[in-house]
Amino acid sequence: MKCIIDLIEDIREQIGNNEAYTVMGGLLKEDAEDSTKLAYVGEAALNKHFIDEESRTLRFEIDDSDTEITLKELIPSVLILGLDMMMYELKIDVHAAYKDMEIVGFGKNDEEKRYILFIKI
Fold this sequence. Notes:
Blueprint: H1 4-15, E1 22-30, E2 38-45, E3 48-52, E4 57-61, H2 71-79, E5 89-93, E6 101-109, E7 114-120
Parallel strand pairs: 1-7, 4-5
Antiparallel strand pairs: 1-2, 3-4, 5-6, 6-7
């Protein structure tokens, strides 16, 4: 389980809060022969983010829009949160079949200026 505070810390350590990065969702899939191994399947731009106080989550969504979340947009919106909200879980809603996906890790692509939130299926 990854929380908002984990996200803030990783962004600061990995890319120094570089606002030029786009936030992406990355898909990891279990290897059919060895469940301890994960294979990188692909990524998609995250289009929306919001705090869901009822479920105590920071939710990211992928929709059909051309909107892309950048760290310039994301960082200020999470840094102002209270300490209790910093412990909210991170989730991604990919589409109807894959809602409430837990973020299992973070990554980056410096060449393409992408910050990646990984989910596993």
